[in-house]
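thread: overnight batch results

M.L. [08:02]
morning all. the overnight job finished for the chain we discussed friday. pasting input first so we're all looking at the same thing
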Amino acid sequence: MAPNELNRVLRDAFLSHPPPSFKGRRLKLGYATQASGEAPTVVMFVNDTGLLHFSYRRYLERKIRDRFGLIGNPLKLVLRSDTEKRAGAARQAVRTDAKRGK
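M.L. [08:03]
and the structure it wrote out:
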């Protein structure tokens, strides 16, 4: 799966049928990419992983399956939040500072 095509499919899905809101918050997609592995795995970077309802997950899986012809293949959606990304960057900065002796 080409990342640009995968992102286009997901953005069209988000626009045609927006995700449900929960306590005034709505799921927002940053970008998506395919991870390496046996089964097709799509990693989606979103604002909050807890906002993805199971029915909306199935909807996104169905859109991906239809576009890329993955009928009958297992498809795994992995969500990563922006907070995880920021925390990872902060840990990396701390490690870099520790190496420099600060």
